[in-house]
Write a structure and sequence with these properties.
There is one protein chain. By secondary structure, the protein is an alpha+beta fold. The chain has a single domain (about 1-130), classed as 2-Layer Sandwich (Heat Shock Protein 90). It has helices spanning about 15-25, 30-50, 80-85, 90-100, 105-115, and strands spanning about 1-5, 60-65, 70-75, 120-125, 125-130. A five-stranded antiparallel sheet has the order 1-2-3-5-4, with helices on one face. Strand 2 and strand 3 (about 70-75) form a beta hairpin. The longest helix is centred in the first third of the chain and has 21 residues, at about 30-50. The mean pLDDT is about 85.
Length: about 130
């Protein structure tokens, strides 16, 4: 298992996160195409997490193997991410986008298009995307 804590207020935090994801997935011999897709999804998830994080919150990032395969887990203290909150997945995001007259959130579209791979939860003031 590979794990780090990152201060989202520091410049360059995203490159540290992507490096950990890349190294962790390579350690488990994940195919390069899957690694790139995972990095894209994680980058969008981390941006959502940072937007809703409390001021002093750290981002906890972990790459781990389980019985079902290899997973990346991202956690941070913060407000619930409303557009991801419906039912523990991101199906709700499509309804929000369909009804929105505002600018389209491309990060949300990327997560929505890959909802079979992305699960969201919010418990005890902590957001988690896996």
């Amino acid at each position: 298992m590979t794990e780090i804590q990152v201060d989202m207020n520091k410049q360059g935090y995203m490159s540290s996160c992507i490096s950990l994801i890349d190294e962790g997935l390579k350690r488990y011999k994940v195919d390069q195409k899957i690694i790139r897709k995972t990095e894209l999804l994680c980058e969008e998830a981390i941006l959502k997490m940072a937007k809703n994080a409390t001021q002093e919150a750290l981002l906890h990032l972990r790459v781990k193997r389980s019985f079902s395969g290899v997973a990346v887990e991202i956690r941070s203290k913060g407000e619930e991410i409303e557009e991801l909150a419906e039912g523990g997945n991101i199906t709700y995001a499509a309804q929000v986008l369909d009804n929105a007259e505002d600018e389209i959130d491309t990060g949300l579209l990327i997560l929505k298009a890959n909802e079979e791979m992305v699960k969201y939860s919010h418990n005890d003031g902590t957001n988690m995307i896996r």
